[in-house]
Write a structure and sequence with these properties.
InterPro entries: Arg_MeTrfase, PRMT_dom, SAM-dependent_MTases_sf. Arginine methyltransferase that can both catalyze the formation of omega-N monomethylarginine (MMA) and asymmetrical dimethylarginine (aDMA). One of its GO terms (molecular function) is methyltransferase activity. The chain has about 425 residues and is an alpha+beta fold. The protein has 10 helices and 21 strands. About 20% of the residues lie in helices and about 30% in strands. A 7-stranded mixed sheet has the order 1-2-6-5-4-8-9, sandwiched between helices. α5 links the parallel β4 and β5.
Length: about 425
Amino acid sequence: MFSDPGYSNGYCRPQEGGAAPEHGALRPPHRGRGRRRGRRGRSHDPADAPASGGAPRVADSEQGVEQKPPPCTDFDMAYFHSYAHLGIHEEMIKDRVRTETYRTAIMRHQSSIAGKVVVDVGCGTGILSIFCAQAGAKRVYAVDASDIAVQANEVVKANNLSDTVIVLHGRVEDVEIDEEVDVIISEWMGYLLLYESMLGSVITARDRWLKPGGLILPSNATLYMAPVTHSDRYSDSIDFWRNVYGIDMSAMLPLAKQCAFEEPCIETISGENVLTWPHVVKHVDCYTVTLGELESVTTKYKFKSMMRAPLHGFAFWFDVEFNGPATSPTSNQVSSSFIESSNNQSTDVSQRKKRANPSEALVLSTAPEDPPTHWQQTMVYFYDPIDLEQDQLIDGSLTLTQSKENRRFMNIHLEYTSGGRSFVKESVMR
């Protein structure tokens, strides 16, 4: 399987140091052609390219210039390597809310998939690619830079789908597909929605290959935040040290707070922990979002506590919807039933439960009141709680920024004011 740098049962092996096959090379019969680009970081300046050249990107075909893809850094390689471990894929597949929602979305959009060309960005084990093949796709390009692509290809062969599903082992930025595609599917969402920056690969695939009017699944996503109270969590991690078997260990408290709450925590909370209606941090329309939008996200918020309770921090969650391009919300049509005013304060209309056409909206939600998923909720805890009265205001701002060191990390800058006191919490999601 590895002796030939071209095809073997639909699998395209990464080429080590060789240039990409020339445009116009022989295609396998009745199939599109997929291949990996040449050496990572290789210049794609026209002056340096061979006369025959590679197939131009769809997005750049009008200008006739192919831009150099971003370099694959050591951090990227470590990220891809982490997804070669089967355990992470087992966790995701066993998340029935996630996996069954994707399968339902594929079947709901079967008329847009049957007989069409699909790209699965970050295919992992290939399960979504196989779902698309089962829905009647003419051809599915299953792209993954991790070595899990080797096993994905074996799964494809074991299910007799090698004539439909072509596994491409490489980055979306590096592989070549010599045809436009009708559908892009990807499970790109990370903790805090944007952590890991995988959405950028979906944008790249969209700009390179998606036909006008093509389908992207999911079509849009919304990130939320809300203040929370969680006394049990605080007691277990912090108050425990005040009396340990009758010994005063309160000297440990500063270190305990740092160890427990310095970085964001991935936990499951319930709706009872949430003190207010949530605020929309960011709405993403996958048909129009740009790479620049993902570098930094800033929002201002204002909450009014619904009860008297200690404020321990903020919870974050997201939902995604699976709509076609005609029904995908625009920047001023948020998928939840919230209205973002010009000053970025969110006004609740009906706590996400009512939508314009509820029967048409297929939603994968990670909200505290919905069935749990492997994403859980992302918690940013304060070192010290703030005692709130009912109807007390909490306002401030949040900035999420891609780390300059590693774009897959996320810097969190949180400012909050309540009861006349102002605070700043900074952390990094690594």
